[in-house]
Specification:
single chain; alpha+beta; nine-stranded mixed beta sheet; 5 helices
């Protein structure tokens, strides 16, 4: 069992380090979860997600260049979903969203059962505005939770072929920094709200002991130096985390 678990973690790390080549893991104990039910935005390929992140300047402003290996499904109440740059109203983002992860290339891999916890963050690099990001980045949420399993429908192609599913959910999330909804100030234009999923780079199954930023502005770091802002990138490095999935929305105050 220990060997099988190690192989699972090795597969995850391989996907993080070599995102261009996903790891096939057939005929092993599965990590299953709820599947897409048709009301989520269509899954994009890794290069399409990366292209959207670069076009919005999330790469390299928020994170260094990386190729996402899982599709990050983010859904607020009343059916409001993140879709790589769609615009949502702040009033519709008052509660924490639900998080799901789906394989970007469903036919190539199966998500496995493991005890590794994943971290979800939401950050605003445009605080108080994109033209004057002196508070950037602003931390809106840090939460950690385990991957959870559920029965995989027999109609799922992955179940029929390999006995595994290509989508998982996060379990009950524990807040490191409680969720505060987007509240862009008046006359500051559209803000980018970036949602990232991160994993421990060493693949540990132990409880994660994550540091809590001392304040939300700049994620508790010092003021910008030579225009360089601070945020989730530095925090992730300090906590031994790497990104493997991302999504984002725009939101703005109705008074512009």
């Amino acid at each position: 069992m220990k060997l099988a678990f190690d192989l699972v973690i090795f597969g995850l790390l391989a996907r993080l380090a070599h995102a261009a080549s996903l790891v096939r893991l057939p005929n092993q104990h599965v990590l299953v979860g709820e599947l897409d039910n048709g009301d989520q935005p269509p899954t994009k390929l890794p290069h399409e997600v990366r292209k959207a992140l670069k076009k919005a300047e999330i790469i390299p402003t928020v994170m260094d260049d990386f190729v996402p290996t899982l599709d990050l499904k983010v859904k607020w109440s009343h059916g409001n979903k993140a879709s790589l740059g769609n615009t949502l109203k702040p009033k519709d983002l008052q509660d924490p969203p639900s998080i799901r992860l789906k394989d970007l290339v469903a036919s190539t891999t199966c998500l496995r059962r493991s005890h590794t916890s994943l971290v979800v963050v939401i950050t605003d690099p445009d605080a108080p505005s994109r033209d004057d990001p002196k508070w950037s980045e602003f931390c809106h949420w840090i939460a950690v939770g385990p991957l959870v399993t559920a029965d995989c429908p027999i109609s799922d192609e992955q179940t029929q072929i390999h006995g595994c599913c290509s989508s998982v959910s996060l379990g009950t999330l524990e807040d490191i920094v409680s969720y505060t909804p987007p509240a862009p100030p008046e006359k500051t234009g559209k803000h980018r709200y970036v949602i990232l999923a991160l994993a421990p780079v060493n693949g540990t199954s132990e409880k994660l002991h994550l540091s809590k930023p001392k304040e939300r502005k700049r994620w508790g770091y010092d003021k910008p130096v030579n225009g360089k802002t601070h945020g989730v990138r530095e925090w992730a490095v300090e906590n031994g985390l790497v990104p493997f999935a991302a999504n984002f929305i725009y939101a703005q105050n109705k008074k512009q």
